[in-house]
Amino acid sequence: METKAATTLLAALAQETRLTIYRLLVAAGPSGLPAGQIAEQLQLAAATASFHLKELSQAGLLAARQEGRFIFYSANYAQMNALLAFLTENCCGGTPCGSDVPCC
Amino acid sequence: METKAATTLLAALAQETRLTIYRLLVAAGPSGLPAGQIAEQLQLAAATASFHLKELSQAGLLAARQEGRFIFYSANYAQMNALLAFLTENCCGGTPCGSDVPCC
DNA sequence: CCTTTATTTCCATAATATTGGAAATATGGA
DNA sequence: TCCATATTTCCAATATTATGGAAATAAAGG
């Protein structure tokens, strides 16, 4: 991952509503939840929820699948894991962090 | 950590210049680097670097310490670790993720 | 106290993001 | 085909963020 891609992911999560949506879907597990239920649960206007779901999806943090008239959104765990790896990468220039100075 | 605090951290990192600064300081290790050297290394106007360093510090991601005429900034690893824990917390509603559906 | 160097604050400009109402689109069932 | 429901797109108002020049502050050493 490069810096640009990481900022896209971070920006997607750096917003209270979106972070709440994301965590709701992390907790919901792989099957996810339909857009309407997400909006309802978080008391959001449909347009607002849709806007944030798009942001998260475009960043690759969510997957969307159609099921009947519903669109289910679910968390993409792989993307988050890649982000976490990037954030702690190259800690202390590669020198293993001493146990007296715990780093990453 | 609550959602609000986490968005503050994420917002601080969700900007290319700031993420680059943060990673530079993660790589620099616990001793950190003086503000001027960070600005120079990243080719930033002093005011711009100062603005971003303040954002990161206010979020708690950086520590600042005066040393002579220099102000050394360094990464606060604990804050990042707390963020990582928060992001993966409560995955799949607490149900351990099956090895066939690897989550977090 | 004056000078040099390091950094920050002030400020205005420019760019980007968030919000939700209303209209458009899509899906499935009667 | 027509209707009800689910979701998205369009749009405009509002709010937030980033940038850097210039001036202010701070620290150390003559």
From TrEMBL, chains A, B:
Q: Where is coiled-coil annotated?
A: none
Q: Which UniProt keywords apply?
A: DNA-binding, Transcription, Transcription regulation
Q: Name one Pfam family in it.
A: HTH_20
Q: Which residues form the HTH arsR-type domain?
A: 1-95
Mention one GO molecular function.
DNA binding
The domain of life is Bacteria
Sequence intervals crossing the membrane: none
InterPro entries assigned: ArsR-like_HTH (IPR011991), HTH_ArsR_DNA-bd_dom (IPR001845), Metal_resp_trans_reg (IPR051011), WH-like_DNA-bd_sf (IPR036388), WH_DNA-bd_sf (IPR036390)
Q: What is this protein called?
A: Helix-turn-helix transcriptional regulator
Q: Which organism is it from?
A: Chitinilyticum piscinae
